[in-house]
Amino acid sequence: MREDITSAFAPARALQYRILGVGASLGLLFAWLSWTLAARISSPVRAISKAAGSVAAGNLDHPLPQFSREDEIGNLSRDLAAMVKRLRYEGEQLKLAALVFGNNSEAVMISDVHNHIITVNRAFTEITGYSESEVLGQNPRLFASGHHDQKFYRDLWQAVLEQGCWRGEMWNRRKNGEVYPEWLSITLVRDERGDVTHHIGIFLDITERKRREEKMGHLANFDQITDLPNRTLLNDRMEQTIASIERRGGYAAVLFIDLDHFKQINDSLGHDLGDVLLKQLTLRLHNCLRRSDTLARFGGDEFVVLLTDVKDGGEAAMVAEKMLASLKEPLDVSGHSLHVAISIGIALCPDDGVDTVSLLRNADLAMYRAKESGRGRYAFYEEEMTQKAGERLRLETELREAIAGGQLQLYYQPKLSAQDNRLLGIEALLRWKHPEFGFVSPATFIPVAEQSGLIHEISEWVLRQAVMQQRLWQAQGFEIVPVAVNLSVAQFQRPGLAEGISRIVQEGGLKACWIELELTEGMLLELGSKNIEVLNRLHDAGFAIALDDFGTGYSSLSRLKRLPISYLKIDQNFVRDIVTDASDRSIVSATVALAHALNLRVIAEGVEHSDQLDFIRSIGCDEYQGYLFSKPVPAEEVVRFLNRKEG
User: Fold this and answer.
1) In this structure, is the dihedral angle defined by the CA atoms of residues 520, 271, 275 and 345, taken in order, positive or negative?
2) Are 482 and 544 within 8 A, CB to CB?
3) Is 340 within 8 Å of 284 (Cβ atoms)?
4) Which residue segments constitute the domains of the chain, with CATH numbers given?
5) Most buried among 205, 220, 251, 414, by the most CB within 10 A?
6) Which of these, 201, 292, 198, lies nearest to 250 by C-alpha position?
7) What whole-number distance in Å separates Cα of residue 315 and Cα of residue 515?
8) Which residues are within 8 A (CB) of 266 and not within 5 positions of it... i.e. 6 or more apart?
9) Distance of alpha carbon 329 from its chain centroid, rounded?
């Protein structure tokens, strides 16, 4: 029965076992499926988590899992990739910023809210001389130079707090104690709540820039050769002095100084030695002044002295006399011992002017008065000088009209043999017949023509007229003689003088031998070596050259020997009294002997009486001219003295 029961339930137990097996299999299957599913789900998460951990540790180069699914895993993967990309960019920017910070040529200093330095860059240490360790935790007042007062710093920090920044020039001190200028910018850094967290100071050493500015300022205000104040600085100081006199009273004096015959020195020795001379002269003049006075170079060989706070004109005269006396001893110019002289004009403020232009103009007028009085002296300004200057300006205007209106004429005075009264030559003399005032003296209008530059136009007109008149006399059948025309020192200031004269004579169809050129002895003192070359070219071209007014200009014998001259004309001042004055007779006799020793012909000017003619004949004078034979006459009257050509 027991077996029957076992047998009866055997199928059931087998079914049970199969059910259990199937259940176990299903359980295993489900377990495997669950594990597989879980692994599939968790693997991307673990990969992302691992990559995120590596990134969080600072490894931005860790490979990132790439999931393109449109689910949370895909979104998480893309977000992680975007974050890494952003971190890499920010890292590069931080590296770039650190590179810029460290290598910036501008010094950078960052301090905290309490103004304690927390970092500096390399340029900071190079400029200040302090290392980073020496300044960390320090207050920037460590660099204070003492150049600025407390108000400066209060205003600075007030601007920083109110405006958030300040920019300007500041003087600080390096570690070695040297004070230097810097261009500084201070900026506040605030957090999101607006509280100050840091101060950033950026500065640049501007020492070289300041030096360049000072050099440019010096060049703008000082003369490059003498290092004296120039016109710009002189005008500024004069304006300050005038303003002070207007407020407090008192006097000031302006001395206008001109170096006599400087052009001759320049031409003879060269401009380099001329510059050395100006420097030596500057030292001499400067030693005559007080520290409060100003010596300025006005231009060329002109100087101006501003004497501040003088009692009267007498004090200014004492300074002028001291300057003149200081030049009695020669100047040593690179081995050359040179005697120089100056002419000084003095104007007083406020008596002679209350503005810069008037004072300089009036002092200049006074200086010309000193020159006219003999040079090497001083003169005070007088009101009549302004009147004369006005007359000179009016005369210049009328002279221009005279040139255009045909008011200029040539008169001619014969030159005769002292032995037999033969006509040997004629001197052309310029005359101006003013429609209102009649004849104007050449002594009056020639200086005006020279100063205004009109002398060039007038001299060319004179030469052309003389050449044309010679040709006209020839056409009328007369035997012509040489005609002498006068040269002006101003003509030598223009290049091409010799060539221009030759061209005019050739264009007129005349040979050079029929034109003589006269220059005064005084001109020789103003003509340099280059102008002597001009005279040589004129002589080589066939023009005879005469030295007029001999005896008044103190020519040296050595200079006469070098000049290409053919005639000496004795000044009429020595001829006038030769009958009654033994000194004049001696001078004239010596001059004739000297000229003949140099193979020069001698012409006596201003012979008005027969006894004068008798004397110059007796000493062997070659020619004469003067009222004894004829006064200057118009061209149409000259034919009385010319011989008709035969046949």
Assistant:
1) positive
2) yes
3) no
4) 2-99 (1.10.8.500), 104-210 (3.30.450.20), 222-381 (3.30.70.270), 391-641 (3.20.20.450)
5) 414
6) 292
7) 54
8) 274, 528
9) 32
